[in-house]
Design a protein that fits this description.
Length: 173
């Protein structure tokens, strides 16, 4: 969700990441193997198996280096990743035909806005890209963004931000 975030007092040291896997059959063997794999990622902290039935793991990765799905895929080995969720604070700006969130540590993530549901509403300001565009114009660009992380062409990182996540918006900065 995009929610109000205070101006950055200091640099955040870690980024919270949730990884959901498919195909785990045993909490001890599989769960421990994945926990060990994720723990082996550079700078990984607080790696936990949160919910075995859902295949959900949580960890914190260093904010200075971009969180890359390809590295997580390598870390989890044979297991299929259902989704990677990330939560970031940063400054959003308009670049070319999209929005980019840059963290205090200087890492950039493209915001992939899924506004299909917003298009159904009658007011144009309810459209997600219009809403974020207005915040950028007004200088209200310090945001907290949560969503699914993916890696596409050229290794670009994008965070899928949905209308459902924006529905609970409060004031932005």
């Amino acid at each position: 969700a995009l929610v109000a975030a205070p101006a950055f007092a200091g640099e955040e040291e870690t980024v919270p990441v949730k990884v959901t896997l498919k195909g785990m059959s045993c909490p001890t063997g599989c769960g421990e193997a994945v926990t060990k794999g994720l723990s082996g990622m550079a700078g990984a902290k607080d790696v936990k198996l949160v919910d075995f039935d859902k295949g959900l793991f949580s960890l914190n990765l260093p904010a200075k280096s971009a969180v890359k799905p390809s590295e997580i895929k390598t870390a989890v080995g044979k297991f299929e990743i259902a989704k990677i969720e990330i939560s970031l604070n940063g400054t959003v700006s308009k670049e070319k035909d999209g929005f980019v969130l840059k963290t205090a540590a200087g890492t950039a993530y493209a915001l992939a806005l899924s506004d299909e549901c917003c298009e159904l509403k009658t007011k144009p300001e309810e459209n997600l890209s219009v809403k974020i565009g207005n915040w950028v114009k007004e200088g209200k660009t310090s945001l907290k963004v949560a969503g699914d992380l993916s890696e596409c062409c050229g290794g670009a990182l994008s965070i899928a931000v949905s209308c459902a996540q924006v529905a609970e918006d409060k004031k932005v900065n």
